[in-house]
Specification:
It contains 20 helices and eight strands. It has 467 residues and is mainly alpha-helical. This is Lytic transglycosylase. It comes from Pedobacter miscanthi.
């Protein structure tokens, strides 16, 4: 009798993983579609730093049981570091509600790529820590996409970056590249937690930590790893826990704006995604969400290199219209493909440091009311350059502060532009407005009106530069 009572108590604490799995696989087709952009900021945030906090025995027991109950190949040990990240993530109910919603679309893509490379399925949860499953996420050093590939690493694993496409933003291509990386990292390091750490800081840093600690146990070598990597693995384990036990923390799935049922076609032609969206009678943003890697909203397929287009599966689709768009031979765009150069901020800083001559330095004394943008505009330089040249960690300037400006990087300032006004009407898009005015472009309208997104509001008055 005592054994039965004890077993029932453990089950109550555990909450049965099956109920959590049901939460995870909630079918969102029945939920209302929302078209608001859930990606508030495309810049990724480093893993939050946590402090050491004592835990009660009750917490230890419950969370350890739950982690042990999750089917896994990757070890999911429980300790105070993991608990602190569980505490952080469990409070982010809105964020994890969105993650559960997005997982209905993205997890099947991740699962297939990981399975094809015989990589544990739990690795897919890293995308929450890396990018919150945002294909447009960019880190402060240039890591890009859902899997946050640096330029060099992405290129090494077969991802293409040119003037048309950045495959680091392609969920399918980037998932296969990530799977290949984990295959190589596990073969070299022989431990999944070490492979996960290597994904964050590189295999070289992990091998050096192994040598210093004379151990291959992540928790032993942890002290010798970069600070962010020490927290990266506990954050991953906590993300696995919260996604599987969201119902124990009052986290509910939110419907995503992704079409869950899709068709995929290969094209050997140049295809306008904007035109295709009109024929499908869906928002352009929804079409781009399915095909986030195409920079110009143009799919540049050729006979030698066919390109993939993902389309929503619609009951009343205009198949004749779709056929015409896919076979249109008059897409107005230069077909020349130019390979992209690195966007690794660390490499770019090194190049700038080598090319800058100290004799070209001028100094600017900050006056009241000035900020980095006004100073950069005055000298015709970039804000990011000002920050690098002066080692600025904050955007705030203090009157009297002296700033270094490298004169050889200055560009002649243009005469003040004159503007026309345009009041936004229902159905207007930036591209359509730009077409109404000679010399106007989507980029110039966004710049002149300081628009952070392409979204417009009816009644908004825009400044349009004359020529």
């Amino acid at each position: 009798m005592i054994k039965k009572i004890l077993f029932a108590s453990i089950c109550a604490c555990l909450g049965y993983i099956s109920s959590a799995s049901a939460q995870q696989t909630l079918k969102l087709d029945s939920l209302p579609k929302v078209h608001n952009n859930i990606f508030i900021n495309t810049d990724t945030v480093a893993v939050p730093v946590v402090s050491e906090n004592p835990l009660t025995m009750g917490q230890n027991f419950i969370y350890k049981l739950r982690l042990d109950s999750i089917a896994k190949t990757v070890p999911l040990p429980y300790n105070e570091y993991v608990q602190q990240y569980i505490d952080i993530y469990a409070k982010r109910k809105d964020m994890f509600g969105k993650m559960i919603g997005l997982s209905s679309y993205y997890f099947p893509i991740f699962d297939k790529a990981l399975k094809d490379y015989n990589i544990p399925q739990e690795i897919k949860y890293l995308t929450i820590v890396e990018s919150q499953m945002n294909p447009h996420a960019i880190s402060r050093v240039g890591a890009t996409g859902i899997w946050q590939f640096m330029f060099g690493t992405g290129k090494a694993y077969g991802l293409k970056m040119d003037n048309f496409v950045d495959e680091r933003k392609d969920p399918i291509q980037a998932s296969y590249a990530a799977a290949a990386y984990f295959r190589d990292a596990f073969e070299e390091l022989g431990d999944w937690l070490l492979a996960i750490a290597a994904y964050n800081c590189g295999k070289g840093n992990v091998n050096r930590a192994i040598e210093k600690a004379n151990s291959r146990d992540f928790w032993v070598i942890r002290q010798f790893l970069p600070k962010e990597t020490r927290n990266y693995v506990p954050a991953f384990i906590a993300a696995v826990y919260v996604m599987n036990y969201s119902n124990k923390h009052q986290i509910t799935a939110q419907a995503s704006n992704m079409f869950l049922k899709t068709d995929t076609v290969q094209t050997t032609r140049f295809v306008s995604l904007s035109t295709l969206a009109k024929v499908l009678n869906i928002e352009e943003g929804a079409m781009m969400a399915l095909n986030p890697s195409y920079k110009k909203k143009i799919v540049n397929g050729t006979d030698d290199e066919p390109k993939r287009i993902v389309m929503p599966k619609l009951k009343d689709a205009d198949y004749a219209g779709i056929y015409d768009v896919l076979n249109d031979q008059e897409v107005d765009v230069s077909m020349k493909v130019i390979e992209a150069s690195t966007d690794d901020a660390r490499d770019l800083r090194k190049k700038k440091a080598k090319s800058i001559s100290t004799s070209s330095i001028v100094y600017h004394k900050v006056t009241a009311g000035q900020n980095l943008t006004t100073v950069a505009d005055k000298y015709g330089v970039e804000v990011q350059d000002l920050r690098v040249w002066n080692g600025l960690k904050s955007k705030t300037l203090v009157p009297g502060q002296k700033l270094k400006i490298y004169a050889k990087n200055r560009t002649p300032l243009k005469a003040p532009a004159s503007f026309l006004s345009y009041k936004v009407k229902t159905g207007d898009t930036l591209s359509e407005i730009a077409e109404k005015f000679d010399g106007a472009t989507v980029q110039s309208i966004r710049r002149d009106n300081r628009l952070s997104k392409a979204g417009l509001q009816v009644g908004m008055v825009l400044k349009i530069s004359k020529g």
